Amino acid sequence: MANLRKLFKRRVQRTRLQIKRTNRGRPRLSVFRSGRHIYAQIIDDKAGVTLVSASSLDKDVRGTLKSGATVDAASSVGKIVAEKAVKKGVKDVVFDRGGVSYHGRVKALAEAARSGGLNF
């Protein structure tokens, strides 16, 4: 089990290093997927602050969905984070999927954020 955690941390570090090389000053849309919920936040790494955040625990999302661990929940979180970002004036971001593959809930969140007005 400890070996799996090491491999996951290695994938996360590899993804973040690649993002740092190619971000060109754009904020990072970071996605965290747990067993029960999904979280997204837009982070300005230069200033070290979170600009926008949304999750399946938010009141807007929680009331409409049965579970926070579905593709529908991820889509609604993606739409919400995109709306908040556009209101703050952030349109171009870099997508940080962490160590998980671009599939399922992570892909649904990314596509919803793109349809909400974010470019990555």
Distance between the termini: 34 Å
CATH architecture: 2-Layer Sandwich
Strand order of the largest sheet: 3-2-1-4
Order of helices and strands: HEEEHHEH
Q: What's the CATH topology label?
A: Nucleotidyltransferase, domain 5
Strand content: 15-25%
Give the oligomeric state: single chain
Provide the domain count.
Answer: 1
As a percent range, the share of helical residues equals 40-55%
CATH class (first level) name: Alpha Beta
Estimated structural class:
alpha+beta
Description:
With 120 residues, the chain is α+β, with helices and mostly antiparallel strands. It has one domain (2-115): Nucleotidyltransferase, domain 5 (2-Layer Sandwich), CATH 3.30.420.100. 45% of the residues lie in helices and 19% in strands. The protein is built from four helices and four strands; from the N terminus they run αβββααβα. The chain has a four-stranded mixed sheet with strand order 3-2-1-4. A hairpin with a 4-residue loop joins strand 2 (38-44) and strand 3 (49-55). The protein is globular. The N and C termini lie far apart (34 Å). The model has no long low-confidence stretch (mean pLDDT 94).
Provide a compact summary of the structure:
The chain has 120 residues and is an alpha+beta fold.
Question: Key terms for this structure?
Answer:
single chain; 120 residues; alpha+beta; Nucleotidyltransferase, domain 5; four-stranded mixed sheet; 45% helix; 19% strand
Q: Layout of SSEs?
A:
Blueprint: H1 2-22, E1 28-33, E2 38-44, E3 49-55, H2 59-62, H3 71-88, E4 94-96, H4 105-115
Parallel strand pairs: 1-4
Antiparallel strand pairs: 1-2, 2-3
Helix pairs in contact: 3-4
